Write the structure tokens for this entry.
Amino acid sequence: MKREGWQGWDQYAPFYDWENTQTLGRRDVPFWRRLASKARGRVLELGCGTGRVSMPLARAGIDLVGVDRSAPMLERARRRITKAPSRHITKSLRLVRGDIRQLPFEDQTFPMVLAPYGILQSLIRPRDLKATLASVARVIAPGGTFGIDLVPDVPKWREYQNRVQLRGRAGGAQLTLIESVRQDPKRHLTTFEQKYVERRGSRTREHRFDLTFRTLSVPQMMQQLERAGFTVDAVLGDYGGRPWDDRADVWIIVARRKQG
């Protein structure tokens, strides 16, 4: 059976927020908030997951639809909304379960589409990326903005086996992340084999899953966007707006849907 890029994310859902709080945190959120505030209408976020980006944007009054394939991820987002209700969030944020390769929306619905935190790298076959870009081109309005954030260090990750990456407490449990990494340079694939060890008193449970990413270079991604009907307006190297270069820690592409 061939692997799909969405596999592993349902199992990752209970640990996603805990891990990202210790690594990425929220340093990308102000950038997406600034960009989305320029939209003249409802914004679509691809791969919204647990609401890490969508909830702060909705709290700022941005009218936003978040789409994700993973039901457990979306359920955690809904729980967060329930636990921390906000008039802006309940009014501005709509969560939809769907496949980003076949977006369940009408043509030219959104003036802006966001793809934060490497979501397009979860498309592990060329045809998956092609289908997603075509789907975004269909639902975005002519002249609309498409913002993309890629994680550049994924293909540079050194291969290793069973390395303890993180330790900490979450929800009354002691968590340990033990990780292995495999690279497939020919297909531009990086696979993270995750083992979360959860200890509660004398009880121990192991949670195992793989996450696979396909990473194209910035020029390659720009070429794919052009083929899908977009014009690249800017390529940035950090969340403050610095121009991109080969040493950049972040790859951000801001593109525009061509008119006509």
